[in-house]
Design a protein that fits this description.
about 15% strand; 8 strands; eight-stranded mixed sheet; elongated; Immunoglobulin-like; 3 domains; alpha+beta; 16 helices; single chain
Length: about 450
Amino acid sequence: MFARRIITLLVILGSAVGCGRSEPTENANLIQPSSAVEQKSLNRPSEQVLEGNQTLPGTARDSSLAIFNRRILPIFQSSKPSSCAECHLSGVDLKEYIRPSQQQTFASLVDAGLINVNQPDDSKILTFIQRRPEQKSLLIEEIREQEFEAFRAWIQAAVSDNALIADAEVQTIGSKFSSDVIRHGRKDRVLESFVENVWTEAGRCTACHSPDTNQEQVKEHGEQVSWISVGDPQATLDYMVDVKLIDTDEPEKSLLLMKPTLQLPHGGGQKMVIGDRTYKQFRRFIDDYTAIVESRYAKSDQLPIPSQEVSVVTDIWMKIEGVPAEYDKMLLQIDLHQQTDSGWSALPVATADRPVFGGGNLWQHSLSLLAIRETDWANQLSAKKLPPGNYLAKIYVDQNDKLQKNFNAELGEGEFIGQVQVESQWPAGYGKMTIIKFPSP
């Protein structure tokens, strides 16, 4: 009975290999021993871990080395990402916590406070491996459990051998990136940025690219036009990356930028121009996403400065009539400042920008509400309503292609054309747009 139990445990300990790879044969993933001592330790019966920290007869070194070679080194040598990739787009991988030898790995993990030699099951490295997002992948969950059981079995065996710490020089272990960079690369933060910068603008694209509204476009162009996953920004982002709508090799040439700006043919016409607010938001996300997946951020001071402004697209439309034909095709921006007890608000509470349709001497577009983060007004943006009342509309026209030359530039006093007061209830809907006259010179 006792011998049968040993054989059963040997099968269990050898069954799981890191990173989700299966063992085609018992010896397929064994690492060749580097010395006669290691060869000897692999050939003789290994000490196996039982309940808690109890062990069967044999030396701890034999047991831990066998487990390390069979179950930890394959994780280190795998070209596939570890379970860390479920939460981190980049910056963290389990193999960064492993070194080529058992002695180096154990001593370095202990020195870093990641192995608890007194309570091995409370080791931080095990806690790290067990971290998972709210929405778990069944495939990654299987990989995670394999990694967890491999490290747990090895640590339980290794803590019995005090010589492991003395035998090896401590090395730096873990991610080479700062904690701020690691947090910046978390998938949940990346998704928040995608929602804020791209997903909020998806309403411009749904008629042609959302499967719940684009059946005519699908008949004409095929299923590939449906790149929006209804109600699922993460699936939309994943698809955009897969089909190169977001191109991390040449981010500025991403189809998500090139088509709506008509740098490439686009059946939906022009949806934005280089340098307008939407383009800035798309570029902000795409450039940042590229830098993350390409590991271009190493230190905190390399991270982009977070925008203090939040915005939301509404169905509140505004039209300017009598726009001079000389501004045809130029980008016109309108900022709305709300009337307060102390005068006009210092910052605009709504904005819109779009090229002028000079042939009709008009400009029209839907408004985006603007606010500074964590203010009372910011908390009201989700309602997508502009309070009725008096506003000052400031108008800017990019007459010298300022934004074409530098998409990060902002229109200011040099592009200011004039202003006009407007009072409106600001109803939603294209057929209920608020109309103003272009200001006189």
